[in-house]
Amino acid sequence: MKSSRICLKYLVESDTDKLLRAKAEWRLPESVLLFPDEADRVFQDPSVHGVIIATPTFMHKDLIIRGLSAGKAVFCEKPIAEDIKGTRQCYEVAEKVGKPLMCGFNRRFDPSFSHLRDQVLLGVVGQVQLVKTVARDSPLPSIEYLKISGGIFHDCAVHDVDLICWVTGEYPTHVFASATAFIPEVAAINDHDTVAFTMKFPSGTISMTDLSRYAAYGYDQRLEVFGPKGMVASGNERPYQMTTSTVQGESQPPILHSFPSRYYDGYINELNHFCDVIQGLVDLQLSGENTLKVSTIATALEESAATGQMIEIKY
Asked: Which pTM value belongs to this model?
């Protein structure tokens, strides 16, 4: 574990090979490794302060409620549940027991995106008129994962929705999305691999996003905010900054390959925030209201892609 603030008490996993790899990589004792039918030990152990859930989506709600009901703070990868009703139920339990429930929208903890937002809040670009994001996966996620991911809107687009709403400080009133599947295996599971969508905000701001499940050249992640005073933009990151210039032209190292390397610092900052919340040092940055609204927006985008119509959002 990279964080000295966290003691990994238990690791629950159904795949024996994954458990053994984790044991070897992190030098874990046998007592840490549990199978799902042993999970009660986690919830019954008073020394456990927080639970981190990174299971398939269909398991999230029940595990969240078990953790909260046992008096644990809970961090869960998005989405919180498979639908709005389940998401709302989880946050109602969190409020009832007085324990934090944090949804894993890691991009707002990325140093580059966080600094960009600070510039926007300082008024560097003036009133925000346009926001553009690009999110293209590398490598192509496995079909096994995509089958249980909840679909590209709830698995992938939610990150851009949360990021845009966080930067602008508002939520859209209207959305429009278009989607297709170029990859036959993705089409076969009734999902999409390529998406473009726009959002219109109460202030008049318009956002534009394009998503892809596969970019051959690396993990493409960009954010741009434009206004009457200028523009701030965060481009792709590379393992080192170097430009080679020859008679053939200029070249740079390829962009980072995938999300673990691109958002490495963001994941650390995200977990540190969770620790701060558990210790009562700060308030939870990601409210239940925000998570519910992001889920509502993702559902509206999904509806727009299916119907070909612009959707007005009612929160």
From this structure: 0.94
